[in-house]
Design goal:
Metallo-beta-lactamase, Chain A; six-stranded mixed beta sheet; five-stranded mixed beta sheet; 11 strands
Length: 262
């Protein structure tokens, strides 16, 4: 694993949100998975969001932030959820997620549900697209607004549509929802640095997706409607490191499905 100055250190980002960066860097996870610890300044207990892989050294550090009330998951990918059962057992708490399969001793999260945890009010927003079960968590405390975005919006770069579980039409609707958050709302992503203005980043994501769709349309005109997803990737993503063409192909498959259904 690579070393990073933030590994192993709980870093405050807002008065109520701190991050523990897991030492699992990769092309897909950027510097690693952000495990979020939420706690109002006057609360003795916290909420853990996305504990990451089953990596005991990281999970022990997360457990040391307790006592905790619950473990919440933004979506089902292993780099966010794999360590949840171990951590929940260590802390004696339940696990909640939108997908009931991921839940332990609790019911699944619901779109619009209001959670009172760690001295905070957290609003659940179902934001499918990256995956079908993706959620964001909105909160505000002492005038500071923040949204935990999981992989729906990253701190750097753009998000892969994990086709066929993820769908571009769903993702565009989710981005339009995030564009409507108040200006200055802080984005707390699953990977990468925090975002000073989530709505601004969501607008950029929308523009990027529209540009990619235009490029895919142009590729199909040149290559023909029967072009394979890989052929489209090599045409549209020629400026991207070929090591990322595999994930790019997921997004292209989602784009082709979207265009064919439009």
């Amino acid at each position: 694993m690579l070393e990073h100055p933030a590994y192993g250190s709980l870093r405050p980002v807002t008065p109520f949100a701190s991050v523990l960066l897991e030492n699992n860097p990769s092309a897909m996870t950027l510097d690693g998975t952000n495990t979020w610890v939420l706690r109002a300044p006057d609360s003795e207990s916290c909420v853990i969001v996305d504990p990451g892989h089953h990596e005991i050294e990281h999970l022990e550090r997360v457990a040391g932030c307790g006592p905790a009330e619950v473990v919440l998951l933004t979506h089902h990918h292993p780099d966010h959820v794999e360590g949840a059962p171990w951590l929940a057992g260590r802390l004696g708490v339940s696990v909640r997620a939108f997908d009931p399969v991921l839940c332990l001793d609790a019911v699944s999260l619901e779109d619009g549900e209001l959670l009172q945890l760690g001295g905070l009010r957290l609003r659940v927003r179902h934001t499918p697209g990256h995956t079908g079960d993706s959620v964001c968590l909105e909160t505000e405390h002492d005038g500071v607004r923040a949204v935990l975005t999981g992989d729906t919006v990253l701190g750097r770069g753009t998000t892969v549509i994990a086709h066929p579980d993820g769908a571009l039409g769903d993702y565009l609707r989710s981005l339009r929802l995030l564009v409507e958050v108040p200006a200055g709302t802080v984005g707390l992503p699953g990977h990468g640095p925090e975002l000073a203005d989530l709505a601004e980043t969501a607008r950029y994501y929308l523009e990027h997706r529209e540009q990619r769709l235009d490029q895919v349309r142009a590729a199909l005109r040149e290559l023909g409607d029967e072009a394979t997803p890989r052929q489209v990737v090599e045409h549209v993503y020629a400026d991207v490191d070929p090591s990322l063409w595999g994930p790019a192909e997921w997004s292209v498959r989602a784009q082709l499905d979207y265009l064919r259904q439009s």
